[in-house]
Amino acid sequence: MDWDVDELLAEPTTEVEQDYSSLCTQWLNERMAPELLPFAEDVVTRVTERLRAQLETLQSSIGTANATGYRSVLIQIELERIKFVLRSYLRTRLSKIDDYGQYIQANPSVLLNLSSTERQYLLRHQQLLHRHYMTSFLRELPMKMNKLDDTIGRTSMVAAPDMDSPVFCMVNETIEENLRVAENEYVTLDRGDILLLKYSAIANYVRAGAVSLI
Predict the structure, then answer these.
(1) What are the DSSP calls for 104-160, one per residue?
(2) What is the pTM (predicted TM-score) of this model?
(3) How many domains does the chain have?
(4) Cα-Cα end-to-end distance for the chain
(5) Residue 202 structural domain
(6) What region holds the DNA replication complex GINS protein SLD5 C-terminal domain (predicted)?
(7) Do 154 and 179 fall within a single domain?
(8) CATH assignment at residue 195
(9) What is the pLDDT along the chain (214 residues), one digit of tens a residue?
């Protein structure tokens, strides 16, 4: 089967399609990236508002002939598909917040990637976690040993994402400058290329939308 690059990278035609396509891209990027990416607030807000409006319309049609019609069933299926992507996107982000909470709190630039709700969740989660550790075992240790962010032996206790982990990616826009992936090793990034690279090498392009993770 031949790949039609132009078809794969074609822009959606309507605002609704554009938002859903953008949500799917953000979802895949978040699932595949080792780091917590900036929260797609605008897209999530618009998609959530449309979902709420459609669900209210369906609720108001219950008991009528339209509620069991073919079109109504298709709408419900489509709504469930969108809800799945949205929930998975949000859960993926919460999972990273759980895993890298201390790291996120210690890095203001990463903290900016969270939504206001996620920041509240992070604060509460870290408070509960610290309280649990203190009551379970930390209070029994000497003061100099009961910290959760020590770097004894040059090994940090704070879990951080592995930015050098390999990822598959698709190039959305041709990058004029060759990408350095190792010492004396460069690759070209042409529109439609699918590559396996270290995430750290393309992280900035992913955030800018020039490259998508797959």
Answers:
(1) HHH-HHHHTTS-HHHHHHHHHHHHHHHHHHHHHTGGGS-GGG--SS--GGG--SS--
(2) 0.82
(3) 3
(4) 19
(5) 162-214
(6) 161-214
(7) no
(8) 3.40.5.60
(9) 444 545 445 566 688 899 999 999 999 999 999 999 999 999 999 999 999 998 888 777 665 655 556 777 788 889 999 999 999 999 999 999 999 999 999 999 999 999 999 999 999 988 887 776 667 665 666 565 556 566 565 666 788 999 999 999 999 999 999 999 888 899 999 999 999 999 999 999 999 999 999 9
